[in-house]
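Chapter summary example: a protein plus pyridoxal-5'-phosphate.
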Amino acid sequence: MAKNFLPDQYERTQVLGINHNYLHDQFADVDAILGKVREVVVQGDFTLGRAVDRLEQRYAAMLGARFAVGLNSGTDALRLGLIAAGVKPGDEVITTTYTFYATIGAIVTVGARPVFVDVGDDYNIDPAKIEAAITPKTKAILPVHWSGRPCLMDEIGRIAAKHGLKVIEDACHAVQATFDGRFAGTLGDVGCFSFHPLKNLNVWGDGGILVTNDEAIANHVRLIRNHGLIDRDHCEIFSFNSRLDTVQAVVADHLLDKLDHITATRIRNATALDQGLAGIQGVRPPTRNARLKEVFHLYCIECERRDELQAFLIGKGIDAKVHYPIPMHLQPAARDWGYKVGDFPRAERLCASELSLPVHEFIRPDQTAEMVARIGEFYGSARV
Ligand SMILES: Cc1ncc(COP(=O)(O)O)c(C=O)c1O
């Protein structure tokens, strides 16, 4: 049976020295946030209150988007975004097989069918493979900016325009990432972000936000996140309750002030890891692309003898993780769609060789150096 609590995860992070989990540090200023939460309580401003308004305005302004709508999770940002973009039961949505379950869950719970495409060497959907997956039922493309690395959005936009498809961006990893200087999440019709506790901008539970430049989409999402109500006594469409909780909006708004620092520190750490790992035989960080600003929600590498390296690093107190070992087309939940091993070889190879190293803003330079040294030690320091 599914559990509410994942004890192994919490126990593991208590014994390791260099961790993926950094919430303890992230919310060291808990009292400052509690002071702001107190105002919500005093004002009784609990649902869609002033804090939600303020966050939506600041978030849209930060990304240069016309509208932002707070929702109860990144998953619902995707789900309501798909609906507002016109995706209906029976439609097909083209997406990557190398993603988190929520991307696919959002498509499926709208009643549409995900059609998978392989990734490229950037771990993102390979635009060269998209057109072959288009059928008369295709309604949208859903690229995922995996690990905070933007997809090749010019090519995806060109294909979408040619075939009359909507683009819903899963930017849950990618707040402040850019492609050719434009923010991830503002490059398609809808951009979806998560405030899950381990995301770059996070809250004290679940939360998400959707951005768009399309007023009709923004209005529709505002309607369907709040029971379809146009006012207290009139319901336009029977719908969801997917409001961003006001308390969570306070937390996100507080962290927004720190986001430039969070992003810059993640980039600093990733650069140190790139430089340190370059040339260690057995490890391959992805090649960087000067058109992109990556924000390193995850720092991913491909490596030989991945499982052994992971066990070795954990033994040395370094929380190396696998994101994730099984691609979406090979999940039990995908059984009815007829995919098999070998359908998407690049993603399958990635699932067998990927390792993520802690890169967040509380990782110090001596800790990136320690990770590099341990990986060099594992591979016998052999340099290419
Ligand atoms: C790529 C991706 N998309 C969507 C989501 C869903 O976000 P949430 O957990 O806020 O529903 C996640 C969350 O972890 C994610 O990693």
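Key point: The longest strand covers residues 67-71.
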